[in-house]
């Protein structure tokens, strides 16, 4: 995922060093990955290799089907170094703890001299967030985000006041989308301008090498960018034509579409073809040119300057061990239909279905549909984490893990989220058209046709009263729970028990 062709590292050694890129089973197999994720990363690695060679660099590229491939990063590096007589190895510092630990362990026992350089990508150092929140029980993103706005001079007036008079326009960003030509006259979804690649040959070598994947391979009509030019073109289109509606419809969901007004840039960003600062500056420019509003631009910038850097900081401050957190003691297995999308729950069918089809779901689908259900049903956060890490095109542990284990599953006990992100059918119905035409009834709590989210939601708060009952953000929830009669509460507990006993058949 270190595929930034404009890293200054590459300017220094034209022709003097050999760059090694490798496709290895240790990286394809640490979790079961979506086919498009493996294809996308390998295709982007091959594109970078070609670009480096074209600009005069020596490159040694180890393909997945190379007979000499040891399928292990240190073992391949030892072999290449031995063959070409190298005594030193330099790498870009990895962003995942797993790889960082592996390289450190190797450095301590190899005779090669191993050093690392920066990927020149992030706006913060690994431990900046930890230093900002030292000694605090809850790490508020908003505090970090404001400090980042000031530090990087983003959307500011007089160097320290927020442009537009407010730091946060979240409240204006919660509209549903009903589709064009409806009485709401919502705008049409923008055109999908992503490139089309045919990766059939690469796919066949991935399969011949025995790599196991899931999801739609789409090898002949692959739509993710594989080089910086393509990623920049996609960003340009987003800023000009999509960003104006980004904020307003950021949380909306609809069965007719899987993208709405989202940027689809997380793959380009996470493999570092795009830099976060250039994305932020392009959005600011759209504001200055009057292309997009404060609400849209602030909402978008907050995701990148705020959430993205913040979750990375949470990750480095809490690894190793953050992946094992399970504050609510959840141990159920992931329902089988997470791998097929075959469920009668229309919201899960659509959100999981598009994840398998496109290796993509937007934030609210990940958080308030799929993650919401897993948490309410008491699924093991480790299984949920493995699924998220595998399924999405943009999933790398430094960003996926805090979003899943922390924000979505509350498994860190509230370090990252001040309350669990859960809801009953009411929220899903407000933000989507999922409930219309669903097998289940969004308004019922008990009975064969009752929406499973409803009983699970109330039962969740009843079961976790000891831990959550005093949370000031949940006062209203507990008030409503306490208004129910003991009979109603018992019926809900019984319904929830039935639902979790029947997860595979919902
Ligand atoms: P947009 O909605 O258009 O947002 C623009 C950009 O903002 C994104 O590209 C991303 O870089 C950044 N961003 C937005 N929200 C977040 C966030 N919460 N954390 C970090 N960056 C954010 N994002 C990943 O990049 N990789 C993951 O593996 C990942 N796993 C997630 C798991 C769960 C359970 C949840 C709730 C969220 C996860 N996210 C992850 C965050 C977010 O859902 C994706 O970044 C976003 O959906 C990517 O699509 P987009 O580029 O169209 O984003
Ligand atoms: Fe999902 Fe329940 Fe709505 Fe069906 S009724 S779509 S299960 S929230």
Strand arrangement within the widest β-sheet reads 1-3
Low-confidence stretches: none
Strand content: 5-15%
Helix content: 40-55%
State the oligomer: single chain
Largest sheet: 2 strands, parallel
SS-derived structural category: mainly alpha
So what's the overall shape?
Answer: globular
Bound molecules: flavin-adenine dinucleotide, iron/sulfur cluster
- Average of per-residue pLDDT values: 95
User: What is the H/E order?
Assistant: HEHEHEHEHEHHEEHEHHHHHHHHHHHHH
What are the SSEs and their pairings?
Layout: H1 9-12, E1 18-22, H2 25-28, E2 33-34, H3 35-54, E3 58-62, H4 73-84, E4 88-92, H5 97-109, E5 113-117, H6 128-132, H7 141-151, E6 156-157, E7 161-162, H8 200-208, E8 213-214, H9 228-246, H10 266-270, H11 276-288, H12 294-318, H13 346-358, H14 363-377, H15 381-391, H16 397-408, H17 425-431, H18 452-463, H19 465-468, H20 475-483, H21 486-500
Parallel strand pairs: 1-3, 2-8, 4-5
Antiparallel strand pairs: 6-7
The structure holds flavin-adenine dinucleotide (FAD) and iron/sulfur cluster (SF4).
Molecular structure report:
The protein is built from 21 helices and eight strands. By secondary structure, it is mostly helical. The strands form four sheets. Strands 1-3 form a two-stranded parallel sheet. A two-stranded parallel ribbon has the order 2-8. It has a two-stranded parallel sheet with strand order 4-5. It is globular. The two termini are 37 Å apart. The model has no long low-confidence stretch (mean pLDDT 95). It binds flavin-adenine dinucleotide and iron/sulfur cluster (SF4). Residues 345-347, 425, 428-429, 434-435, 438, 440, 442, 451, 453 line the site of iron/sulfur cluster.
């Amino acid at each position: 995922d270190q595929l930034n062709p404009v890293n200054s590292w590459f300017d220094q050694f034209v022709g003097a060093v050999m760059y090694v890129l490798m496709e290895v089973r240790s990286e394809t197999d640490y979790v079961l990955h979506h086919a498009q994720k493996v294809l996308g990363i390998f295709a982007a690695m091959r594109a970078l290799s070609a670009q480096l060679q074209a600009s005069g660099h020596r490159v040694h590229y180890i393909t997945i089907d190379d007979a000499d491939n040891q399928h292990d990063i240190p073992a391949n590096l030892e072999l290449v170094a031995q063959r070409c007589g190298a005594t030193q190895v330099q790498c870009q510092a990895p962003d995942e703890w797993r790889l960082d630990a592996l390289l450190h362990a190797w450095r301590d026992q190899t005779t090669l001299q191993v050093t690392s350089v920066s990927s020149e990508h992030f706006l913060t150092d690994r431990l900046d967030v930890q230093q900002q929140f030292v000694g605090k029980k809850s790490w508020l993103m908003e505090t970090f985000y404001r400090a980042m706005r000031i530090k990087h001079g983003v959307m500011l007036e007089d160097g320290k006041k927020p442009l537009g008079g407010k730091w946060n326009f979240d409240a204006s960003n919660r509209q549903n989308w009903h589709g064009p030509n409806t009485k709401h006259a919502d705008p049409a979804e923008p055109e999908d301008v992503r490139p089309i690649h045919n990766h059939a040959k690469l796919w066949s070598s991935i399969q011949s090498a025995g790599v196991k994947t899931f999801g739609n391979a789409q090898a002949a009509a692959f739509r993710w960018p594989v080089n910086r030019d393509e990623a920049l073109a996609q960003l340009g289109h987003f800023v000009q034509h999509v960003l104006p509606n980004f904020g307003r419809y950021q949380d909306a969901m609809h069965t007719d579409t899987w993208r709405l007004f989202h940027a689809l840039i997380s793959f380009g960003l996470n493999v570092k073809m795009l830099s976060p600062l250039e994305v932020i500056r392009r959005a600011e420019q759209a504001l200055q040119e009057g292309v997009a509003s404060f609400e849209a631009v602030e909402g978008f910038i907050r995701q990148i300057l705020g959430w993205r850097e913040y979750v990375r900081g949470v990750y480095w401050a809490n690894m190793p061990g953050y992946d094992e957190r399970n504050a609510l003691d959840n141990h159920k297995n992931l329902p089988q239909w997470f791998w097929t999308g075959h469920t009668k729950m229309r919201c899960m069918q659509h959100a999981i279905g598009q994840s398998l089809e496109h290796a993509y779901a937007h934030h609210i689908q990940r958080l308030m549909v799929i993650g919401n259900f897993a948490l309410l049903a008491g699924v093991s956060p480790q299984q949920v984490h493995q699924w998220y890490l595998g399924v999405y095109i943009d999933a790398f542990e430094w960003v996926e893990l805090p979003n899943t284990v922390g924000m979505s599953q509350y498994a860190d006990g509230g370090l990252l989220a001040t309350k669990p992100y859960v809801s009953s059918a009411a929220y899903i119905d407000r933000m989507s058209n999922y409930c219309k035409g669903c097998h289940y009834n969004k308004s019922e709590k008990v009975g064969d046709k009752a929406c499973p989210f409803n009983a699970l939601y109330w039962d969740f708060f009843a079961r976790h009263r000891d831990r959550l009952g005093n949370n000031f953000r949940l006062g209203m929830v507990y008030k409503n729970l306490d208004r129910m009669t003991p009979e109603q509460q018992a019926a809900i507990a019984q319904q929830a028990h039935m639902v979790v006993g029947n997860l595979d058949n919902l």
